[in-house]
Design goal:
Blueprint lengths: L3 E4 L4 E4 L8 E5 L13 H18 L4 E5 L6 H10 L3 H18 L15 H13 L3 E4 L2 E4 L15 H8 L13 E5 L16 E2 L1 H12 L4 E7 L3 H15 L7 E7 L2 E3 L2 E2 L10 H7 L2 H9 L7 E2 L2 H25 L11 H8 L4 H20 L3 H17 L7 H6 L4 H19 L3 H13 L2 E6 L2 E6 L4
Parallel strand pairs: 3-4, 3-9, 9-10, 11-13
Antiparallel strand pairs: 1-2, 5-6, 6-7, 7-8, 11-12, 14-15
Helix pairs in contact: 2-3, 4-6, 6-7, 9-10, 10-12, 11-12, 11-13, 12-13, 15-16
The protein binds adenosine monophosphate (AMP) and zinc ion.
Zinc ion binds next to helix 7.
């Protein structure tokens, strides 16, 4: 089976065919770094990390080039820097470091490139110059504007007729615009704001041109896949596309496939800082394992809205407990922890080939776990080793089951608790050696009261926190 992806432009699922299978390119619009990001901002991070992992598996780890940008020029960053009396780079560096730490905790691999606007200014100015030279942009009153009339396909990605956009933009149209839908490529900075040199005066770029210039500089146009949240289709991606095609570097092409994740909602509204209904990944990670948050983010298909509730998180945790429990049992019974990576994609990979069907992939993981449980019960060692390899290969393809099962179940237990359990186990071993069964029973009850399950094996006893009822 081949990879098929839903393309927002085609409005259908289509077989994925990269221009060059030895150099597959993926670009995803990243965060504005002025604060901690909420868990909704990490939905595209996790979704496109899953795609990155799958592409690396299909085309080879060195053949996939993934760029995820960072917006480090923005009014909100300016405001925060002014409040603190520091340069904008100080604010951006701090929150980019926090963002990357959270992304890593959620199991996201580092993108190949993480370009920043402040490091791309030359390419941005050069691309605006190209657009002006080609008659697709014009300078007016210190601004440079994209001329939407120069691009007949404007509106094709979002499916909005230009007339609707004019109606939407009619309120408060800047007098220097030739057409209400024209958008800013360069604008003067306000007093005390950071500014950069350009042939049109000192100022700063518009948001849309930043991404197009970063794509051109880092990946080269056209690219194979462009991704982001569904809110970016209009105007951001519509404008990126218009700029990229009109600048001419991709010979009329910009992105082979447009992919957009649905919203993460909380309380039936999109999670967003402006509404105030946010849960920060930074906070959630203090009380939940990263894999559980990642599982929760992938528990629905990426194009569907996902409601963020306590029960989504509880279900994610118990799903992972179920998989780790059978792996823990398998490790003990098989007394062999060596994993042999499977060559074929297996049922988990097959589900993902169908437009990243993560709920289908989770169902496949449960089936593999059931097969492993059955093989352990029937004491079929070869079948159990095979099933465990399949389960681990499938789980790790998705960025799960990376922890040692023992450590997974002891997570959350602090050092004092662990020391207490270890001491009780030592006392129990001593009581048993002395055939003091009454003492051994008493200690067993004490461990049960601590919600600890003890597993005896020839190599000694091990423990884990008991399954929640
Ligand atoms: P922003 O920092 O708001 O530009 O968002 C960064 C990325 O997160 C973009 O790809 C957005 O589309 C995406 N995003 C923001 N909020 C949500 C949400 N509630 N659910 C899903 N994706 C979101
Ligand atoms: Zn972008």
């Amino acid at each position: 089976m081949k990879l098929t992806l839903y393309d927002t432009m085609a409005r259908s699922k289509r077989p994925f065919n990269p221009t060059n299978p030895d150099r597959v390119t993926l670009y995803v619009c990243g965060p504005t770094v002025y604060n901690y990001a909420h868990i909704g901002n990490f939905r595209p991070v996790v979704v496109f990390d899953l795609l990155f992992r799958l592409l690396r598996r299909l085309y080879g780890p060195d053949a996939v080039i993934y760029a995820a940008n960072v917006t480090d020029v923005d009014d909100k960053i300016n405001r925060k820097a002014a409040e603190e009396g520091v340069e904008i780079g100080v604010v951006a560096d701090r929150f980019l470091a926090a963002y990357n730490a959270d992304a890593k905790a959620l199991g996201a691999l580092s993108p190949t490139f993480q370009p920043r606007v402040t490091e791309t200014m030359d390419a941005i100015v050069a691309m605006i110059g190209d657009l002006v030279d080609r008659g697709a942009a014009y300078a007016a009153e210190g601004h440079v504007l994209f001329d939407t009339q120069a691009f007949p396909d404007y509106g094709k990605l979002s499916g909005r007729p230009l007339d609707d956009m004019i109606a939407g933009a009619r309120v408060d149209v800047a007098p220097y615009k030739r057409h209400p839908a024209d958008f800013v490529l360069w604008k003067p900075s306000k007093p005390d704001e950071p500014l950069w040199d350009s042939p049109w005066g000192q100022g700063r770029p518009g948001w849309h041109i930043e991404c197009t210039a970063m794509i051109e500089k880092i990946l080269g146009l056209p690219i194979d896949i462009h991704g982001g949240g569904i809110d970016l289709v209009f105007p951001h991606h519509e404008n990126e596309l218009a700029q990229g095609v009109c600048a001419g570097h991709g010979h009329g092409e910009y992105a082979g496939v447009w992919m957009h994740n649905g919203f993460l909602n909380m309380g039936e509204e999109k999670m967003s800082k402006s509404v105030g209904n946010v849960a920060l990944a930074h906070d959630l990670l203090k009380s939940h394992p990263g894999e559980a948050l990642r599982w929760a983010l992938l528990s629905g298909h990426y194009r569907q809205p996902l409601e963020w509730t306590g029960s989504v998180l509880d279900q994610a945790r118990s799903a992972l407990d179920r998989l780790y429990r059978v792996l823990d049992d398998a490790n003990r019974i098989l007394a062999d922890k060596v994993v042999r990576e499977e060559d074929d994609l297996g049922p988990v990979g097959e589900a993902l080939l169908d437009d990243l069907n993560s709920p289908g992939a989770f169902a496949a993981l449960f089936q593999l776990a059931d097969a492993l449980r059955a093989a352990l019960m029937s004491k079929d060692r070869d079948a159990a080793l095979d099933a465990r390899d399949c389960l681990l290969t499938g789980g790790r393809l998705m960025g799960f089951l990376e922890a040692d099962p023992q450590a997974w179940f002891q997570m959350g237990a602090d050092d004092g608790f662990k020391a207490r359990v270890e001491a009780l186990l030592a006392d129990r071993a001593a009581a048993r050696a002395a055939k003091d069964w009454a003492a051994a029973d008493r200690i067993r009850d004490e461990l049960a009261a601590l919600n600890v399950e003890v597993m005896d094996a020839a190599s000694g006893a091990s423990w884990r926190i008991k399954e929640q009822a």
